[in-house]
Design brief:
The complex is a heterodimer. Chain A has 8 helices and 13 strands. Chain A is of the alpha+beta class. In chain A, strand 1 and strand 2 form a beta hairpin. The model of chain A has no long low-confidence stretch (mean pLDDT 91). Chain B has 2 domains: 116 residues, Rossmann fold, CATH 3.40.50.720; 162 residues, Succinyl-CoA synthetase domains (Rossmann fold, 3-Layer(aba) Sandwich). A 7-stranded mixed sheet of chain B has the order 5-6-4-3-7-8-9, with helices on both faces. Chain B has a 7-stranded mixed sheet with strand order 11-10-13-12-14-15-16, with helices on both faces. Chain B has a two-stranded antiparallel ribbon with strand order 1-2. The longest helix of chain B is centred in the middle third of the chain and has 14 residues. The chains are: A alpha+beta, B alpha/beta. Chains A and B meet through helix 4 of A and helix 5 and helix 6 of B.
Chain lengths: 303, 303
């Protein structure tokens, strides 16, 4: 197995474990119930299979209060409800396992700690397989945890700029300021028959330099058209226009047609700068999107 | 203006707009920072009653005529306060939110993005125990048009009117507010629910407040892929007398990819665009495919 490729990941290391005699299997997880706004402990005495396949009435869900935290009595209640005697060796081991799992969840800023199966082998308990996901927003205080990046090179470049970027398969590159409007921009392109090449959110408040470098990321992917959709709040329209002017100056022969929709903070100055570059800004995002799709289609036809 | 004459008096109180109004006294935590100082100016320009600011170590100075204190407690010794807005970096935001809640402030608006989710769970739980309204995190804030703006939305598109607006996204809310304003429809209040996985105030609570507000005649709900906030909202919309128009961003978003917001991700087949549109439509909400359709629908509803 070493050196082989599994779903795009190179197998660099193998962990070899001793054979385990399995007497009983459990499912145990601690995760976050977003709707309930609290952590939830999920347990079942039907371990070893995907939890989605376990019937609902065999799954125990116990919510905790993030502020109050975890207590041994919560674990004792879970063990009792799973049908184990609290005086038995297995019962005691399971209480300890639940407390330890919760501790990992809390101390390591996990959004999921899943042990499946949790195995009784003789008197002892083993975590035979586990999956842990750490909150990326807590990386600053979880420095000892190795982090697996599931990103393309371009996505990494964008992340270093502080820009959200997701690669897609279409031919119209987009840049927008805000996650919602960036998604909406993709959807509108699709509505008019175009296909987005990416998702890009150059979060509010970015400066000329960041926007210019983000634009260069888009250009490097050689899309048919670039569609910039900016509704200036804390992002200033003049910064965006200056970024375009800067990139254009560096590479006067930008071959990719650029459609820019620019409204909001400092829009007049933004429009003036773009006019100097020979570009007329759009004010309506639907109209601009339709234009971008039309341009992409023309390029298709002429090739 | 016509709307202004329709002030409804209930028990001697002006009952227009939700959560905040022209009398709301606001403090800014992090008033001397880049975002805090910029938006304090904007809030003052909009007419918000900013009574004080907090910046540990800078107590005693004034900023734009607003007195600055070292701690929230010090503010409360000198001023009456209804609401606070948090412009504090993610790593230490929990401390500031807890400080405000512990001091007994009833409305806490958390602008900060990228706060670790475990911190969010803790202060959301504490807010619930203190009976405080927590808006966000990762929100543009709340704006009761012409009365009070707490947060970061651009001032010019929020004019008084009959439409309640609630959104998971900032820029997309501004976009739709602008389209409504151009068509002659202002907003009673616009609330940013926030883009993270867990939120303080949710769709259902905000919809209930709009239902009870005599100024609000229809509600625009702006959702996006990920989580099940829209599905939860649908349960209430089914029995809500006032009309709800919904727009959901992310129709073209690929699964298992985070689209800018921490909460905007389709995981394991859950949180899809199709699920949200179907559930909302079945509950009686008018779901539109394009942001530009919102003003037309509002115009028909309120004609």
């Amino acid at each position: 197995m070493l050196g082989t490729n599994i779903q795009g990941y190179l197998v660099e290391k193998l962990l070899v474990e001793g054979n385990l005699a399995v007497d009983q299997e459990f499912y145990l997880a601690v995760t976050i119930d977003e709707g309930a706004k609290s952590p939830v402990i999920i347990a079942s005495n039907q371990g070893g299979i995907d939890i989605e396949e376990v019937p609902e009435n065999r799954i125990l869900k116990v919510h905790t209060d993030a502020e109050l935290g975890m207590y041994p009595f919560i674990a004792r209640n879970i063990v009792r409800r799973l049908g184990l005697g609290l005086g038995s060796q297995h019962g005691k081991e399971l209480v300890k396992a639940i407390l330890a799992t919760y501790q990992v969840f809390q101390e390591k800023d996990a959004v999921l700690v899943e042990i499946n199966p949790l195995v009784f082998s003789g008197e002892k308990i083993f975590a035979a397989d586990a999956k842990v996901i750490i909150d990326p927003d807590a990386r600053f205080r979880q420095k000892d945890i190795p982090y697996i990046e599931d990103q393309t090179e371009t996505e990494k470049l964008a992340q270093d700029l502080g820009v959200s970027y997701v690669e897609l398969k279409g031919d119209i590159a987009i840049m927008a300021n805000g996650a919602g409007i960036a998604m909406s921009t993709m959807d509108i392109l699709l509505y008019y028959g175009g296909t987005p090449a990416n998702f890009m959110d150059v979060v509010g408040g970015t400066d000329t330099e960041t926007i210019a470098r983000s634009l260069e990321i888009l250009l490097a992917k050689k899309p048919k058209v670039i569609f910039i959709n900016i509704f200036g709040g804390s992002t200033r329209c003049d910064d965006v226009a200056r970024a375009y002017a800067k990139v254009k100056k560096k590479d006067p022969g930008i071959q990719v047609p650029v459609v820019i929709r620019l409204v909001g903070t400092n829009q007049d100055e933004g429009w003036r700068i773009l006019q100097e570059c020979g570009i007329e800004a759009y004010t309506d995002m639907e109209e601009a999107a339709a234009k971008a799709v039309e341009l992409a289609a023309c390029i298709c036809a002429s090739r | 203006m016509h709307m202004r004459q329709q002030v409804v008096l209930v028990k001697g109180m002006v009952l227009m707009a939700i959560i905040v109004n022209q009398n709301t006294k606001v403090i800014v935590q992090g008033i001397t920072g880049k975002q805090g100082s910029f938006h304090t100016r904007q809030m003052l320009a909009y007419g918000t009653k900013v009574v004080a600011g907090v910046a540990p170590g800078k107590g005693g100075i004034t900023f734009e005529g607003v007195p600055v204190y070292d701690t929230v407690q010090a503010v409360l010794e000198n001023h009456q306060v209804d609401a606070t807005v948090i412009f504090i970096q993610a790593a230490i935001a929990k401390d500031a939110v807890m400080e405000a809640l512990e001091a007994g402030i009833g409305i806490v608006v958390v602008i900060t993005e990228h706060i670790p989710i475990h911190d969010e769970l803790e202060f959301i739980s504490y807010a619930r125990r203190k009976g405080a309204i927590l808006i966000g995190p990762n929100t543009f804030g709340i704006i009761s048009s012409g009365k009070c703006r707490i947060g970061i939305p651009p001032n010019q598109f929020f004019i008084p009117g009959p439409v309640g607006l609630v959104s998971r996204s900032g820029t997309l809310a501004y976009e739709i507010a602008k389209k409504l304003a151009v068509a002659g429809f202002g907003q009673s209040t616009a609330v940013g629910m926030g883009g993270d996985c867990v939120k303080g105030l949710t769709f259902v609570e905000i919809l209930k407040l709009f239902e009870a507000d005599p100024e609000t005649r229809a509600v625009v709900l702006i959702g996006e892929i990920g989580g099940d906030a829209e599905e939860e909202a649908s349960v209430y919309i089914k029995e809500m007398p006032k009309p709800v128009i919904a727009y959901i961003a992310g129709k073209s978003a690929p699964p298992e990819k985070q689209m800018g917001h921490a909460g905007a991700i389709i995981r394991g087949g859950r949180g899809t665009y199709q699920s949200k549109v179907k559930t909302l439509s079945m509950a009686g909400a008018l779901v539109v495919e394009m942001p530009s359709e919102v003003p037309e629908k509002i115009s028909k509803l309120l004609a």
